[in-house]
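Q: I'm building a small set of examples for a reading group on sequence design. Run inverse folding on the following structure and report the sequence directly after it, with nothing in between.
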Protein backbone atom coordinates (compact mmCIF):
# COMPACT_ATOMS: atom_id res chain seq x y z
CA UNK A 1 0.00 0.00 0.00
CA UNK A 2 2.82 2.32 0.81
CA UNK A 3 4.44 1.78 -2.61
CA UNK A 4 1.21 2.63 -4.39
CA UNK A 5 1.01 5.99 -2.56
CA UNK A 6 4.60 6.78 -3.47
CA UNK A 7 3.94 5.81 -7.09
CA UNK A 8 0.85 8.03 -7.20
CA UNK A 9 2.78 10.97 -5.75
CA UNK A 10 5.56 10.49 -8.31
CA UNK A 11 3.01 10.31 -11.15
CA UNK A 12 1.30 13.52 -9.99
CA UNK A 13 4.65 15.29 -9.54
CA UNK A 14 5.88 14.31 -13.00
CA UNK A 15 2.59 15.38 -14.58
CA UNK A 16 2.80 18.72 -12.82
CA UNK A 17 6.46 19.09 -13.87
CA UNK A 18 5.57 18.39 -17.49
CA UNK A 19 2.76 20.97 -17.49
CA UNK A 20 4.92 23.70 -16.05
CA UNK A 21 6.48 25.99 -18.60
CA UNK A 22 9.89 27.50 -18.39
CA UNK A 23 9.83 31.12 -17.19
CA UNK A 24 10.26 33.72 -19.86
CA UNK A 25 13.51 35.70 -19.78
CA UNK A 26 11.92 38.84 -21.16
CA UNK A 27 9.02 40.62 -19.50
CA UNK A 28 5.85 41.03 -21.54
CA UNK A 29 5.82 44.22 -23.57
CA UNK A 30 3.48 46.81 -22.06
CA UNK A 31 1.57 49.16 -24.26
CA UNK A 32 2.45 52.83 -24.14
CA UNK A 33 -1.09 53.57 -22.91
CA UNK A 34 -0.50 51.29 -19.91
CA UNK A 35 2.89 52.91 -19.23
CA UNK A 36 1.37 56.41 -19.45
CA UNK A 37 -1.44 55.42 -17.10
CA UNK A 38 1.02 53.91 -14.63
CA UNK A 39 3.19 57.04 -14.75
CA UNK A 40 0.15 59.25 -14.15
CA UNK A 41 -0.92 57.16 -11.17
CA UNK A 42 2.60 57.32 -9.69
CA UNK A 43 2.70 61.10 -10.21
CA UNK A 44 -0.64 61.55 -8.45
CA UNK A 45 0.43 59.22 -5.62
CA UNK A 46 3.60 61.19 -4.98
CA UNK A 47 2.31 64.75 -4.73
CA UNK A 48 3.19 67.38 -2.14
CA UNK A 49 1.08 70.50 -1.62
CA UNK A 50 1.11 73.51 0.67
CA UNK A 51 -0.40 76.92 1.28
CA UNK A 52 1.92 79.89 1.48
CA UNK A 53 1.10 81.89 4.58
CA UNK A 54 2.39 85.23 5.81
CA UNK A 55 5.40 85.14 8.11
CA UNK A 56 6.54 87.49 10.82
CA UNK A 57 9.15 89.93 9.56
CA UNK A 58 12.56 89.28 11.14
CA UNK A 59 15.27 91.78 11.77
CA UNK A 60 18.38 91.91 13.91
CA UNK A 61 17.14 95.11 15.59
CA UNK A 62 14.86 95.21 18.61
CA UNK A 63 11.77 96.56 16.87
CA UNK A 64 8.18 95.45 16.56
CA UNK A 65 7.88 92.71 13.97
CA UNK A 66 5.36 93.12 11.20
CA UNK A 67 3.29 90.45 9.54
CA UNK A 68 4.03 90.05 5.84
CA UNK A 69 0.98 89.99 3.58
CA UNK A 70 1.98 87.33 1.08
CA UNK A 71 -0.15 84.33 0.14
CA UNK A 72 -0.19 81.52 -2.36
CA UNK A 73 -0.16 77.82 -3.13
CA UNK A 74 2.46 75.25 -4.09
CA UNK A 75 2.27 71.79 -5.65
CA UNK A 76 5.19 69.46 -6.27
CA UNK A 77 4.66 66.25 -8.30
CA UNK A 78 6.81 63.65 -9.99
CA UNK A 79 7.11 64.10 -13.75
CA UNK A 80 5.63 61.01 -15.48
CA UNK A 81 8.36 58.72 -16.88
CA UNK A 82 11.11 60.92 -15.32
CA UNK A 83 11.44 59.96 -11.62
CA UNK A 84 14.41 62.28 -10.97
CA UNK A 85 12.49 65.34 -12.19
CA UNK A 86 9.67 67.09 -10.36
CA UNK A 87 7.10 69.56 -11.59
CA UNK A 88 6.70 72.67 -9.44
CA UNK A 89 3.60 74.81 -9.63
CA UNK A 90 3.97 77.84 -7.36
CA UNK A 91 1.60 80.82 -7.24
CA UNK A 92 2.30 83.73 -4.92
CA UNK A 93 0.78 87.16 -4.34
CA UNK A 94 2.56 89.94 -2.44
CA UNK A 95 1.77 93.62 -1.84
CA UNK A 96 3.70 95.70 -4.33
CA UNK A 97 6.54 97.84 -3.05
CA UNK A 98 8.77 100.22 -4.99
CA UNK A 99 11.69 98.26 -6.43
CA UNK A 100 10.21 94.82 -5.66
CA UNK A 101 10.14 93.18 -9.11
CA UNK A 102 11.14 89.64 -8.27
CA UNK A 103 11.21 87.03 -5.53
CA UNK A 104 13.33 83.94 -4.92
CA UNK A 105 12.09 80.52 -3.82
CA UNK A 106 13.76 77.47 -2.29
CA UNK A 107 12.72 73.99 -1.13
CA UNK A 108 14.17 73.13 2.28
CA UNK A 109 14.07 70.13 4.63
CA UNK A 110 12.17 70.56 7.89
CA UNK A 111 9.33 72.90 8.74
CA UNK A 112 8.96 76.62 8.05
CA UNK A 113 11.41 78.68 10.07
CA UNK A 114 13.96 75.88 10.43
CA UNK A 115 16.75 77.69 8.57
CA UNK A 116 17.98 74.50 6.88
CA UNK A 117 19.89 74.93 3.59
CA UNK A 118 17.90 74.42 0.37
CA UNK A 119 17.82 71.11 -1.49
CA UNK A 120 18.73 72.82 -4.78
CA UNK A 121 19.80 76.32 -5.87
CA UNK A 122 17.16 79.04 -5.39
CA UNK A 123 14.80 79.81 -8.26
CA UNK A 124 13.43 83.15 -9.46
CA UNK A 125 9.86 84.45 -9.55
CA UNK A 126 9.15 87.50 -11.70
CA UNK A 127 6.33 89.63 -10.31
CA UNK A 128 3.62 91.18 -12.45
CA UNK A 129 2.43 94.76 -11.88
CA UNK A 130 -0.27 93.49 -9.52
CA UNK A 131 2.23 91.63 -7.29
CA UNK A 132 1.52 88.11 -8.51
CA UNK A 133 4.14 85.61 -9.56
CA UNK A 134 4.02 82.06 -10.89
CA UNK A 135 6.50 79.25 -11.36
CA UNK A 136 5.29 76.38 -13.56
CA UNK A 137 8.40 74.38 -14.37
CA UNK A 138 10.19 71.05 -14.19
CA UNK A 139 13.05 71.03 -11.69
CA UNK A 140 15.94 68.62 -11.17
CA UNK A 141 14.75 67.20 -7.87
CA UNK A 142 13.34 63.74 -7.21
CA UNK A 143 10.08 64.08 -5.30
CA UNK A 144 10.78 62.74 -1.80
CA UNK A 145 8.84 59.71 -0.58
CA UNK A 146 8.79 60.84 3.05
CA UNK A 147 10.10 63.43 5.46
CA UNK A 148 9.29 67.05 6.26
CA UNK A 149 9.84 69.80 3.70
CA UNK A 150 8.86 73.40 3.18
CA UNK A 151 9.18 76.06 0.54
CA UNK A 152 10.39 79.57 1.35
CA UNK A 153 9.68 82.61 -0.79
CA UNK A 154 12.29 85.31 -0.27
CA UNK A 155 12.16 89.07 -0.85
CA UNK A 156 14.08 90.05 -4.00
CA UNK A 157 17.25 88.00 -4.42
CA UNK A 158 17.48 87.17 -0.73
CA UNK A 159 18.20 83.68 0.54
CA UNK A 160 18.48 84.24 4.31
CA UNK A 161 15.84 83.39 6.88
CA UNK A 162 15.43 87.14 7.49
CA UNK A 163 14.43 87.54 3.79
CA UNK A 164 11.52 85.05 3.95
CA UNK A 165 8.20 86.75 3.23
CA UNK A 166 6.04 83.64 3.01
CA UNK A 167 6.47 79.94 3.67
CA UNK A 168 4.52 76.71 3.14
CA UNK A 169 4.98 73.41 4.95
CA UNK A 170 4.61 70.73 2.28
CA UNK A 171 2.27 67.83 2.97
CA UNK A 172 2.31 64.59 1.01
CA UNK A 173 -1.03 63.83 -0.61
CA UNK A 174 -2.13 60.31 -1.40
Amino acid sequence: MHRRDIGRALLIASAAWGCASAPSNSPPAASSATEDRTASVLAAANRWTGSLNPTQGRTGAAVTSTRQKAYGTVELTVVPNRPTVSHLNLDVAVPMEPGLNNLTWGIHPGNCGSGNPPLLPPGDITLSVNGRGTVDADIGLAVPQSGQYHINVFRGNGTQLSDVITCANLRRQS
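Residues 48-58+66-174 form a domain with the Immunoglobulin-like fold (CATH 2.60.40.200).
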